Amino acid sequence: DDDGGNETPEYVQWMSPDHARPAVALQPSPFFNDLIVSVGDWNFQLWKLGHQAPIFTSPPATERLTHGCWSPTRPGMLFMARDDGLVDVWDLTDSSYIPSVQLLAAPTRVTAMEFLPPASLAAKQQLLAVGDKVGNLHIFEVPRTLSRSATNEKSLMEAFVAREVSRVQYVSERMEIRREEAAANAADEEKAAEGGADGAPAAGDGPNADVELSKEELDALQAEYKEVESKLVEDLGLTEAELPAGYQLPAAK
Length: 253
Hints:
The protein is of the alpha+beta class. Helix content is about 30%, strand content about 20%. It is built from three helices and eleven strands. It starts with about 25 loop residues before the first strand and ends in a 17-residue tail after the last helix.
């Protein structure tokens, strides 16, 4: 509007850096309203609404990821399609380091993947539709071991999310402390450098600093040391046998 009376609504609530390249999938969890999975070329990440960084980043995949989605019946399970036609099945309540199962879904790159809604709520069969890059559609029946949820799986996933949130917060706090320490050290070094420029003692100007001495000064210090050493040997009454090899007793005065 030319008069500026109407304000454009802001649809974007928050933004945060994600994968290095555009994400190939983004889907909310069917069990947690504040949990989202994003899939990039080589890993997937879990996001919890209200946090500016992912709470979990998967290890790099051995093949490029092309799609991903949540299991409709398992709170902690995700299916990740790959460029080589395999599907990695992740059970985060069991392991967050490697996929639990790998399924051969297509002979070439998987481009789409979707769970088919059951005919009824009582249906025990779970079907997965997979499309590949040459246009073929594959329908798979998901094994019961991958579709049937354990009685406490949702609580296990809640514990996993809480643990990852605590880990991310701890790392963030430690990074902030390290930044403050680095800033304090830089300020101390700058202050010491300014002190040295003004003629005040700077770092390294104390009694332990390296000092360049002339030959005459070194000879005088060596003679003083010998005199103190001889006096100590005389006071202790040490014999030649008690002294280190090669050491000569001072000449009698």
